[in-house]
User: Fold these one by one.
Assistant:
Number 1:
Amino acid sequence: MALEAVSLDSDGLKAKAKRIRELIIKITTEAGSGHPSSSLSATEVVTALHFGGFLKLDPENPRDPGRDRFILSKGHAVPVLYAALAERGYFTEEQIMTLRKLGSPFEGHPNAAKLPGMEASTGSLGQGLSIGLGMALGMKADKQDGYVYVLMGDGEIDEGQVWEAMAAADKYNCGNLIGIIDVNGYQQTGATDAVLDMSPLAKKCEAFGWHTLEVDGNDMDAVMDALKQAKAETGKPTCIVSHTKKGAGILPLMEKWGDTNMHGQPLPADKAKEALEYLSKA
């Protein structure tokens, strides 16, 4: 196979997002561990990147130097990446069902030494954008025309390293670097605006020299439009501030259950069954 980007239409993308959500719930419930709600908030973005015509990849040659790169800096949300890569042909559903089990390469955070498609080992929050910047600079030096996409969480941008990377990306005019911040409103210990309020976030990114867009990150069509605009800006890095909901896709159920954060909480079997039934009717 050659490098290619998979391009589904709007209805196909929404159907694929539903399938990825189903896999997220299945694998985390089977594991009895993991971060489904953090993965669900990022589903539209990851689906659009993999199936909306953006990421040029070859599952049979995952280290092709001409490939685009995707770094999941919020590494605890790796179920969404495993699910997307399974749908892309990197893994089977049977394989990803071993998530977090003893001896499985499908660990609780991306491990670039264990699996194809993992561009960086992440989980120590705040490091992904720096890694992505290094890759983007390397691609420019090698005259590769690909892009580097980095998906961050709104909690991890409390880390100063993120802003150092932003300043450096502006200095080096990294138009091939696209950062996406999944603003789902929560981090491990509570609401992000209560832990450390970083608003107005878009203005901060603009002040660091980045082309900045704000979008409803759970609206597939809006996400697609933002990613197209990001690629069209070649003179500077782009940051997409993606406003999402934790647990998107099953949020009404989480509200009924009395917890709209559910950080690091897999659904027990009865709730997973309810969630899968809910998705099937959506």
Number 2:
Amino acid sequence: MRGLVDSAEIVVADGMPLVWASRLAGTPLPERVTGADLIWSLSELAALRGWPIYLLGGPPGVAARAAGQLVERHPRLVVCGVDAPPYGFDASDGGREEVRRKVVGAGPRLVFVGLGFPRQDRLIAELRRDLPDAWFVGCGAAIAFAAGTVPRAPRWMRRTGLEWAFRLVSEPGRLARRYLVHDLPFAATVLTSALLHRLTPA
């Protein structure tokens, strides 16, 4: 997992615990940067530059709906393809090859991959070899957010680091185990480590 993150040209803090930990450690990050925000700002840039984009991920029909919303906001945006591969597609060479063929054939300059970590990041690592001039953005649920099929938290909850609570209430069946069993202990460990780093003499 670490190798996937280290191989990226740009890594952003998509999670308030990382921002809080950076402050506790005495090396503050400027802000949280989410895939749900990047899909809008980078699509605006793509429209201005004439870069075709590709949306990969989400349930059936969601990527196409997201494409419509993005084009509605940025009429000059070119969406050269959308795809919603079925769950488990990456378990077989044939499934991965089908996705690869579609993306490479579309020739995008910017690809939003919303399949969740680490699935999206493993796929990106493969696709980068075929499209070295394209940018790939692992964006999690951003495609569903852009489509409007999954609601985002109110702005005040995003600013105060409570977006996770909103998402947990909105999708408890899907997110309870991830947030409460995996993410909460990990966040506690990261924050504690950051504080100890700050307090430990060099």
Number 3:
Amino acid sequence: MSATQQIAEAFTTARAAGRAIDAYPGTPPATLAEAYAIQAAAIARWSEAVAGWKVARVNPAFAAQFPEERLIGPAFARNVHRVAQGGTAQCPVFEGGLAAVEAEVVIVVAADSPAGKSDWTAESVIPLVKSMHIGVEVASSPLATLNDIGPGAVISDFGNNWGVVVGPEIANWRELETIAVETFIDGRSVGTGKVAIQPGPLGALAFTLNKRAQQGQTLKAGDVISTGMITGVHDIRIGQQSRHVFGGVGEVQVQITKATATGA
């Protein structure tokens, strides 16, 4: 078995069992090509359908080694949670691993993207937006130190994603320039921020379309795209609850539960 397959096997086996691991299972990928090769191998080993993608910024400290502004990772069908205004999503994380919540804008894709097109921009993607929602990414990995190792490690382990919460729709997103957001954990404010619709969520969708095209793939109608953190990456523990308030739009709540064996 190749090193790529060994790493993919270690992460997917741990995720399927709902358990943590103590160290990166091999040598962390040193390039984007290596990282996405492991990700692809892990997706191939997973029995669930990909229902969307998470997007995150590449830390500037790693920009020379991983020269893309963003990275992507798969979101699987059972980890996409849809909640109405006032509702609470029940989201699992790996006990002993990494667990965090991130307030994000989530885009639902309107139609299958055309094969081979890889020159999308924040303006040209607008027809592919079926709807835009307030939401949350639940970041969780069996490896507690995944983010510390760097973007290559994050990409290799499903982009560190274990949940996308799709909240109420932002019906007037075309008329908005920015949305102010605040995140609370167990009632305590842990971060504030502001998202700019054009370079932020629409730019993240454009990046995802271009990246998937470079990988010889497309986005599908109904895919959800979690477009990047707004108030920060907030560590959270099993049993805690987060609340994410999007000014003038609404709020989303997440109850953190313990991941169990999925058999996937």
